[in-house]
Amino acid sequence: MAMEHDAEKSFSHVESSEGSNPNSSNPVTKVRMLLFRRMLVGVSDGRFFLGSFHCMDKQGNIILQDAVEYRSTRRSSPSPMEQRCLGLILIPFSCRTSCHVDCSIEEQLSLLSLPG
Hints:
Blueprint: H1 2-9, E1 12-13, H2 27-32, E2 38-43, E3 48-56, E4 62-72, E5 81-91, E6 96-101, H3 105-111
Protein backbone atom coordinates (compact mmCIF):
# COMPACT_ATOMS: atom_id res chain seq x y z
CA MET A 1 0.00 0.00 0.00
CA ALA A 2 1.49 3.35 -1.03
CA MET A 3 0.30 5.13 2.13
CA GLU A 4 2.56 3.07 4.43
CA HIS A 5 5.58 3.62 2.20
CA ASP A 6 4.93 7.38 1.98
CA ALA A 7 4.32 7.59 5.73
CA GLU A 8 7.65 5.93 6.47
CA LYS A 9 9.49 8.38 4.19
CA SER A 10 8.07 11.44 5.97
CA PHE A 11 9.26 10.37 9.41
CA SER A 12 12.60 11.12 11.01
CA HIS A 13 14.64 8.25 12.41
CA VAL A 14 15.44 8.53 16.12
CA GLU A 15 18.92 7.11 16.77
CA SER A 16 19.83 5.75 20.17
CA SER A 17 23.05 6.94 21.76
CA GLU A 18 24.54 5.14 24.76
CA GLY A 19 27.26 7.71 25.40
CA SER A 20 25.18 10.88 25.41
CA ASN A 21 26.89 14.18 25.98
CA PRO A 22 26.42 15.12 29.66
CA ASN A 23 25.96 18.75 28.57
CA SER A 24 22.95 17.87 26.41
CA SER A 25 19.49 18.73 27.69
CA ASN A 26 17.60 16.40 30.00
CA PRO A 27 16.32 13.21 28.25
CA VAL A 28 12.92 13.62 29.95
CA THR A 29 12.55 17.04 28.34
CA LYS A 30 13.39 15.57 24.95
CA VAL A 31 10.88 12.75 25.35
CA ARG A 32 8.22 15.27 26.34
CA MET A 33 8.78 16.93 22.95
CA LEU A 34 7.49 13.69 21.40
CA LEU A 35 4.16 13.65 23.25
CA PHE A 36 1.18 13.28 20.91
CA ARG A 37 3.44 13.19 17.82
CA ARG A 38 2.80 10.59 15.14
CA MET A 39 5.34 7.81 15.51
CA LEU A 40 6.12 4.82 13.29
CA VAL A 41 7.70 1.94 15.21
CA GLY A 42 9.10 -1.21 13.60
CA VAL A 43 9.36 -4.49 15.50
CA SER A 44 11.56 -7.55 15.03
CA ASP A 45 8.92 -9.69 13.30
CA GLY A 46 8.57 -7.17 10.44
CA ARG A 47 5.41 -5.39 11.54
CA PHE A 48 5.08 -1.60 11.87
CA PHE A 49 2.86 0.35 14.23
CA LEU A 50 1.73 3.90 13.47
CA GLY A 51 0.18 5.88 16.29
CA SER A 52 0.35 8.87 18.57
CA PHE A 53 3.21 8.73 21.10
CA HIS A 54 1.73 8.49 24.59
CA CYS A 55 4.69 7.66 26.85
CA MET A 56 7.97 5.80 27.37
CA ASP A 57 9.11 4.13 30.58
CA LYS A 58 12.63 3.83 32.03
CA GLN A 59 13.12 0.48 30.28
CA GLY A 60 12.43 2.04 26.86
CA ASN A 61 9.00 0.48 26.30
CA ILE A 62 6.78 2.75 24.18
CA ILE A 63 3.02 3.21 24.42
CA LEU A 64 1.18 4.41 21.32
CA GLN A 65 -2.46 5.46 21.28
CA ASP A 66 -4.81 5.13 18.29
CA ALA A 67 -2.29 2.67 16.84
CA VAL A 68 -2.63 0.90 13.51
CA GLU A 69 -0.66 -2.26 12.77
CA TYR A 70 0.81 -2.76 9.29
CA ARG A 71 2.15 -6.13 8.18
CA SER A 72 3.07 -7.62 4.85
CA THR A 73 0.86 -10.32 3.37
CA ARG A 74 2.30 -13.38 1.68
CA ARG A 75 -0.76 -14.29 -0.32
CA SER A 76 -1.50 -12.52 -3.59
CA SER A 77 -3.74 -9.55 -2.98
CA PRO A 78 -4.16 -6.06 -4.44
CA SER A 79 -2.23 -4.61 -1.48
CA PRO A 80 1.04 -6.09 -0.17
CA MET A 81 0.26 -4.66 3.30
CA GLU A 82 -2.57 -5.51 5.69
CA GLN A 83 -3.65 -3.07 8.36
CA ARG A 84 -5.78 -3.29 11.48
CA CYS A 85 -6.70 -0.77 14.15
CA LEU A 86 -5.45 -1.65 17.63
CA GLY A 87 -6.00 1.39 19.86
CA LEU A 88 -3.62 1.67 22.85
CA ILE A 89 -0.58 -0.63 22.62
CA LEU A 90 2.72 -1.19 24.42
CA ILE A 91 5.79 -1.97 22.30
CA PRO A 92 8.57 -3.59 24.35
CA PHE A 93 12.08 -2.19 23.95
CA SER A 94 13.41 -5.70 23.23
CA CYS A 95 11.17 -6.02 20.14
CA ARG A 96 11.71 -2.52 18.71
CA THR A 97 13.94 -2.27 15.64
CA SER A 98 13.19 1.27 14.42
CA CYS A 99 11.44 4.40 15.56
CA HIS A 100 10.48 7.31 13.32
CA VAL A 101 8.89 10.59 14.42
CA ASP A 102 6.95 13.10 12.34
CA CYS A 103 8.80 16.40 12.98
CA SER A 104 10.80 19.26 11.47
CA ILE A 105 14.49 19.05 10.53
CA GLU A 106 15.51 21.16 13.54
CA GLU A 107 13.65 18.81 15.87
CA GLN A 108 15.21 15.78 14.12
CA LEU A 109 18.68 17.09 14.95
CA SER A 110 17.82 17.69 18.60
CA LEU A 111 16.23 14.23 18.99
CA LEU A 112 19.26 12.32 17.67
CA SER A 113 20.76 12.11 21.14
CA LEU A 114 17.74 10.49 22.82
CA PRO A 115 18.65 7.40 24.85
CA GLY A 116 17.56 4.01 23.43
